[in-house]
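During the reporting period the student researcher (J.K.) took over the structure-prediction task from the postdoctoral fellow and processed the backlog of single-chain submissions. One of the processed entries is reproduced below for the supervisory committee.
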Amino acid sequence: MGQLPFIAPLMTSPLPWVILGGLFAGAALSRATRRTRHKRDPDRAATRKWVLTCVYLSLAVVAGLLAVFLPGPTRIVNVTYAWAAGIAAVVAFAALRFKKAAGIPVVVLAVAVVVLVALFLQSIHAFTGQTEIASVRVVTVDTASMRLELVPRAEPPVLLSMKGTYFSPIVRVVIFSDLLVFLGARTWYRFEGMTSCDENLRQQDTDFRFPRPPGISERLWRLFEEHESRIPGVKTAQTELIVKKAKEFSTYGITVQNDGGVEVVQKSG
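J.K. obtained the following structure tokens:
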């Protein structure tokens, strides 16, 4: 995934496939509405017209199926995708159908393609990028407790004594819709502290909380949590607990993914 970052948007968002399907549908409609009677060989021109129409329609169907099955059927239920497909189809139809009558539709299509490509390249970072919000170094660990050095981003380190052998960052995230991510939006986070669990993953009573958690404010988080269904472009507001087993002398990075996930990845040790 690191070597081919453009794969992520194609696999996780229906939007690129929806737009591509709309462009093919517009091309099919443009080809189907062309007249062939004035051609030197009308029958041959008509045959070529309908063959190309079927090809474009087939490509539109394939793009639609990819939009459903690659990201998952539940992610395509969004009126935004219908608008995106419709706009792409209209632009493609106008530019291809009336290109001989005026150069404006061709210019419009060229500008639309350039904008879409630019947005797609921008979305590559949006879907695949990540922000490291802290690192954790395990100083000591035994069967019932551990000592951790927590180093938040742009904050002084904190030495923690916690029960258990598993630790987890307490991170609250606001995840935006695929369209906003496609336009470059990043997940908002609020890093509240650390918690721990025993071998049976039962949460212990030695939580650490930041006096002033990095990220968005408490008031803003509560606003999204209570009204997420009414705020356009917000997919969910939730608390992420990613449990990781502590290994002595190991260092871990805590990252917030741009598509909403939180990861704890071992960096050394």
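The committee noted the following: The CA atoms of residues 125 and 184 lie 8 Å apart.
J.K. will present the remaining backlog at the next meeting.
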